[in-house]
Amino acid sequence: MSQAVRNRRIVLAARPRGEPVDGDFRLDDEVLPLPRKGQVLLRNHWLSLDPYMRGRMNAGRSYVRPLEIGDTLGGATVAQVVESMHPEWAPGDWVLAYGGWQDYVVAEGDTLTRRLDPTTLPLTTALGVYGMPGFTAYAGLHEIGRPKPGETLVVAAASGPVGATVGQIAKLRGARVVGIAGGERKVAHLRDELGFDVALDHRAPDFAAQLAAAVPDGIDVYFENVGGKVFEAVLPLLNDFARVPVCGLVAHYNDTAPPPGPDRLPQAMGLILSRHLTVRGFIQSDFIGLYPEFLREMGAWLREDRILYREDVVDGLEHAPQGLIGLLRGDNFGKRLVRIVP
Amino acid sequence: MSQAVRNRRIVLAARPRGEPVDGDFRLDDEVLPLPRKGQVLLRNHWLSLDPYMRGRMNAGRSYVRPLEIGDTLGGATVAQVVESMHPEWAPGDWVLAYGGWQDYVVAEGDTLTRRLDPTTLPLTTALGVYGMPGFTAYAGLHEIGRPKPGETLVVAAASGPVGATVGQIAKLRGARVVGIAGGERKVAHLRDELGFDVALDHRAPDFAAQLAAAVPDGIDVYFENVGGKVFEAVLPLLNDFARVPVCGLVAHYNDTAPPPGPDRLPQAMGLILSRHLTVRGFIQSDFIGLYPEFLREMGAWLREDRILYREDVVDGLEHAPQGLIGLLRGDNFGKRLVRIVP
After folding, report:
1. Is residue B227 part of a domain?
2. Do residues A308 and A194 make contact, with C-beta atoms less than 8 angstroms apart?
3. Do residue B274 and residue A281 have CB atoms under 8 angstroms apart?
4. Which key words are in the record (chains A, B) (predicted)?
5. How many domains are there within chain A?
6. Hey, which of A223, A337, B1, B150 has its CA 20 to 30 A from A153?
7. DSSP type of residue A174
8. Which domain does B166 fall in, by range?
């Protein structure tokens, strides 16, 4: 190409107060510099939308430094090399990149660690079940949840890419799995397609009673990616020595202040003590040493259709903001992706 | 002796509402049966008073089944064999027993696992630093807290038998130790006798600010045995990957209802997630496999005066209720014991 590239990108226009709105994002335009020695020019084809992105829009301490106003929003992408000044990358190569909410990105070739083969699994799996969300499920179960055969595992947001993978891996490990989702379609998917032992709708007025009835032997692993009233219903049902890997709290990402009382923290700490619970926060990169094992084992499961996945595609970079806003409300049904290149 | 033994014992007269009162206990009297084959008659000389006893006075699920009204209160004792129908025990032998709040107990000889040697360490250490509280400190640090040299550990109730031992072991392991206690005498003890790096009084009006100033590098291990406002001050200061072993929550044992709002649980879960925290409840028996190592290592430390301890003695079985009531208020200065035999 070797000529200036016009790049559309979505930047943080304002810090959201509570739920993000359209005006917190702005579609911007720039001319990209050409790649220099060691760099590659990538075209983003698919952008991953993930709940963690909400946290990065706030000021203050989070996983990583927050975005500044005017910064391009970050995100994992499936991208194709357009131009390369790096010996290991050639035009046409596919790669998993942290390409962001934009058409193109210039990246250091050395930072691109995962080459994608479009002939084995669909490329988009690298953003979902065979990427960060799937590895979150795998690592959180392997290192913290450790479901044993016959134990009961509960997971919420269970039709999402983390939850669905958690439940299916736990089934493969011999656990009894209760999945929680919002709405009858998702519940039916968990029950009829993913083979969960029980699937519950958290919108049911008697949800807490349904959950209690669904776990006659209590809960040994609660994979926490939601928080809110699901956690509230789970807490009293946890067994002695239960494990609670915490990888997300999407019910709270739009909170602007602590909810009204009573203060349930002392009661929760009391249960942690009296039931010998382990509650542990993590992100998948904490266990990056497991990644090769994940790629091997999950790759085999996917090729053998022992793990299934769903995708939920938003068309067009310009619709990514609405895609994220909806994701935070639970509108997605499966892994939410933005198709940037039609 | 071989004649009927009159036994004074203290029974649960009523379930406390909030802080226990004298009327919740009753001094009772009974004639003990003589030991049968395999049993021993023990005279309790020293009774341990421990915060966990408050939980057992409630109805409902706790570590173990709750007491019923009329039951003798349980507790660890240093006892001497009076009469033995068991081949391995002889009159005069000293033993660590779960003898309860009473003068005598008939025990199965096979259940007595720890013979005490009065010529090495003082017998009472088997109820404190060289017993359950000391092992709680040792095991919680070894299995969960894992302080590394140079890391910062914070412990509350730091002049009590668990806290003082936690702080001293952490110092031996190379950590920087901040101890928290109530009142100037206790604070001076931590600083001047136990050699903690910093000692703070939680009663100070600016306690939270003092704590923040005392941990310029944040907190890597918070050994939780108190809860309440100390935990509140600690939470925002925890570092990424901090560990919080939870072995007690004495500030809440007399709670009758959740405190007023706001609800701090979502915020705490948010910190567990964003800072990759591990919060784990335990009791020492979860790690009983470590006990021989504890006896060996702690025994050496005690003989070499590398670990110091304090005792706080209440005289007379009839004063045990007031001893426990005061313990739950933090009136004790060191390990609280009841001397049953003058």
Report:
1. yes
2. yes
3. yes
4. Oxidoreductase
5. 2
6. A337
7. T
8. 132-285
- CA A25, CA A10: separation in Å to the nearest integer? 6
Q: Which residues of B touch A (CB under 8 A)?
A: 55, 61-63, 224, 227-228, 231, 246-249, 252, 255, 257-283, 286
Q: Which helix (H) or strand (E) holds A66?
A: none
Domain assignment present for B298: no
Q: Are residues A247 and A321 in the same domain?
A: no
Cβ-defined contact of A274 to B224 (cutoff 8 Å)? no
pLDDT 10s digits, B6-18: 999 999 999 999 9
Contacts of A319 (CB under 8 A, 6+ apart): A338
The answer to whether residues B158 and B261 belong to one domain is: yes
The CATH number that applies at residue B325 is 3.90.180.10
Residues with Cβ < 8 Å from B309, sequence gap 6 or more? B125, B128, B129, B134, B161, B164, B165, B302, B334, B335
Q: What is the pLDDT of residues B217-271, one digit of tens each?
A: 999 999 999 888 999 999 999 999 999 999 988 888 888 888 888 999 999 999 9
User: Do A175 and A90 share a domain, yes or no?
Assistant: no
As a whole number of angstroms, the distance between CA A65 and CA B333 comes to: 45
Of B264, B267, B274, the CB nearest to A61: B274
User: Do B278 and B190 share a structural domain?
Assistant: yes
The pLDDT, as a whole number, for residue B253 is: 80
Q: Do B263 and A266 touch (CB under 8 A)?
A: no
Compare all CA atoms of chain A with the CA of B283 and give the residue at the minimum distance.
Answer: A276
Residue B250 shares a structural domain with residue B326: no
Residue among A257, A266, A278 minimizing CB distance to B259? A266
Does the residue B326 lie in any domain? Answer: yes
Are B144 and B123 in the same domain? no
- Looking at the fold, whether A115 and A161 belong to one and the same domain comes out as no
Residues B148 and B221 in one domain: yes
Token look-up 């938003």 returns A314
